[in-house]
Amino acid sequence: MFKGIAVAIAGVVVALGVTFAMGTVDNAFYLHFGKQKANIERDIFKEGKSYTEGMIEDLSNYKREFERTKDINEKEQIANMIDAEFANFDANKIENGTLYQFLMEIRNNTWR
C-alpha cells in the first residue's frame, strides 16, 4: 500500500517537473507574477537618481532647443514633445527654479 502511494507521489512530482521544464508552469507563473515584478522594477527605477537626473538633463536640452528656435510651429512641436514625455514626471524633483518654471509653463500651456 505504501509502495503504491510512494509511486503515485513520485509520478506527480515527475509530471510537475517535466511540465515545469517544458515551460508551461513557468510561463503561467511569469504571466501572472512577471507583470507585477516588471511594474515594481519600473517604479523603483523611476524613483532612482539616475532616472531623475536623466529626465532633468533631457528637459534642459529641450529648453535650450525651445529657446533657440524662433519658429512658433517648432516651439509648438517641442512643447508637445515635452508635455508628452514629462506627463508623469514629478516636477518637484527639479531643483533648478528656472527649469521647473519652464516645465510648468509647458504643462499649463502658458509659454506663448
**Individual helix count:** 5
| Helix content range | over 70%
**Terminal-residue CA separation:** 86 Å
- Helix and strand pattern: HHHHH
Please describe the biggest sheet, giving its number of strands, its sense, and whether it closes into a barrel.
none
Note the beta-strand portion: under 5%
Radius of gyration: 26 Å
Q: Which stretches are poorly predicted, pLDDT < 50 over at least 5 residues? A: none
Structural class: mainly alpha
Average the pLDDT over all residues and give the rounded result: 88
How would the global form be characterised? rod-shaped
Total separate domains: 2
Got a strand count?
0
Structure description:
The chain has 112 residues and is mainly alpha-helical. Helix 3 (49-68) packs antiparallel against helix 4. The radius of gyration is 26 Å and the shape is rod-shaped. It has two domains: 1-47; 49-112, no CATH class. It has helices at residues 2-22, 24-47, 49-68, 72-85, 97-108.
